[in-house]
Each structure stands twice: as structure tokens, then as C-alpha cells.
Amino acid sequence: MKQHTLILVSICVFTFLAKAEPPKGFSALFNGKNLDGWNAKPNGWAVENGILTRKPKSGYIWTEKAYGDFILDVEVKVSKRCNSGIFFRTDPKNAVQGGFEIQVMDTTGKKKLGKHDNGAFYDALAPSANPAKPLGEWNRFVIACNGPNISVSINGTEVVKADLDKWTTGNKNPDGSRNKFKTALKDLPRKGHIGFQDHGQDVWYRNIYLKSLN
Predict the structure, then answer these.
(1) pLDDT of 139-180, one tens digit each?
(2) For residue range 101-111, what is the model confidence (pLDDT) as tens digits?
(3) 154 pairs with which residues across the strands?
(4) Which phi and psi (to 5°) does residue 11 adopt?
(5) What pTM did the predictor assign?
(6) Confidence of residue 214 (pLDDT cuts 50, 70, 90)
(7) Model confidence at 21, in pLDDT bands (50, 70, 90)?
(8) Residue 194 near residue 73, CB atoms below 8 Å
(9) pLDDT, mean over the chain
(10) SS3 letters for 186-209?
(11) CA 152 to chain centroid
(12) What pLDDT, on a 0 to 100 scale, did the predictor assign at position 89?
């Protein structure tokens, strides 16, 4: 009887997580059943048990729609040494130069953080903290874009607060360090697609919600 109770509780918990309702004012970008609303390579990203799952050589997966000002609320789980990214305001045909990325990476226990670590505004601003949960657990990212203002929170802790208007020169950050962007960040489009990156290691996304601010 005890074993059956535990199984039932586990099923209930899984069902709740896989079918969680959007927060108030948000809509679901991912329905947990299929890739409706997304563009991806055939036989690439898959839906498994309500979870968006990276498969070998999946490449990027992009929203069909473009978004400008919004709040994105998403849960992420990484594998050991995982390297992935959440792209936004991006041109899928030019992902490297045509938009922005928040790094998704296994930096478990790391204290000295750089511009390529988990939660970083990729190549532009290092995260101020590393509030990631132990490897194998889900982490909640909240990314807010409002005009030039970008903020990132992980598990309730703000780790990035950026003003794009401070990036006035190509290949250069406000602190004088170099970045990959040929175009000054202030001059990049402020509307584009949201996407997730396959960089060769397993990564999972679920409960993907968005609130439009414009």
C-alpha cells in the first residue's frame, strides 16, 4: 500500500510540473505536447513527458513569432558540462551577431564568474551571483526586456541588470573589454525571435511562459 501511495504521489507531482498553469498575465509559448509555435530541424528537438528536450545535432529551436518587450519565465535543467543559451530579440538567420543570449551552462559551485558563465548576458556582462541549484535540478530563469533595459533572475536572485544604451561601440563593452558583437548592442534590433541553443550537450526546458509588455 505504501509503495502504491508513493507511486501515486510521484505521478501527481509529475503531472503538476508538466501541466503547470502560466503565471497571471502570461501565456504559454510551449504546450508540452508538440512543437506548435516553434521552428526546428526535423528529428531534432523533441517533446518527452511534457519537456522540451535537446537531441543530438538539434541545432537551434526558435519561436515562430518575434517579440520585443516582454518577460520570459522558463525552467531549465542542464547536464554535466552543459553549454546552451536562451536567445531573444534575435534573427534566426544570424544568431551569433543578430541578437542577444543569456548563457545556460553547468557552472555548479563556481564562485569567480565571467561573461560566459551561467546567467551571463553572453560576452557582454557577467552574472553578479551563481544561485544555480545542484546539477540535475530545475532552475527558473526570468528574463525581462523593456526597451534598452535587460534583467535576468535565476531562482529569484537577480544576476544581470543591463542598459543596452551603454553599449555604444561595436566589439566593446562599457568596461572596456572586448565582445563578439560587430554592431554596438544599442543598435541591434529590439524585436526578434526567442530560441534555445543546442551546443552539443543535453539540456531540457519546460514551463515556458511569456508576458508581452508592448
Answers:
(1) 999 999 999 999 999 999 999 999 999 999 999 999 999 999
(2) 999 999 988 99
(3) 141, 157
(4) -65, -45
(5) 0.90
(6) confident
(7) confident
(8) no
(9) 91
(10) HHCCCCEEEEECCCCCCEEEEEEE
(11) 10
(12) 98
Residues 184, 173: Cα–Cα separation, whole Å: 9
b/e for 57-85, b at 16 or more Cβ within 10 A?
Answer: ebbbbbbeebbbbbbbbbbbbbeeebbbb
* Distance, CA of 177 to chain centre: 24
Round to whole Å and give the CA distance between 31 and 50.
Answer: 8
**Residue listed under C-alpha cell 543535453:** 202
Pick the CATH number of 23-212 from 2.70.98.90, 3.40.120.10, 3.40.50.300, 2.60.120.560: 2.60.120.560
DSSP string, 48-82: ETTEEE--TT---EEEEEEESSEEEEEEEEE-TT-
Among 132, 97, 134, CA closest to 118 = 132
| Domain range annotation of the chain | 23-212
Alpha carbon 97 to its chain's center: 17
CA 178 from chain centre, in angstroms, equals 23
Please name the residue that has the C-alpha cell 535565476.
154
Q: Residue 130 half-sphere exposure, CB side, CA atoms within 13 Å?
A: 18
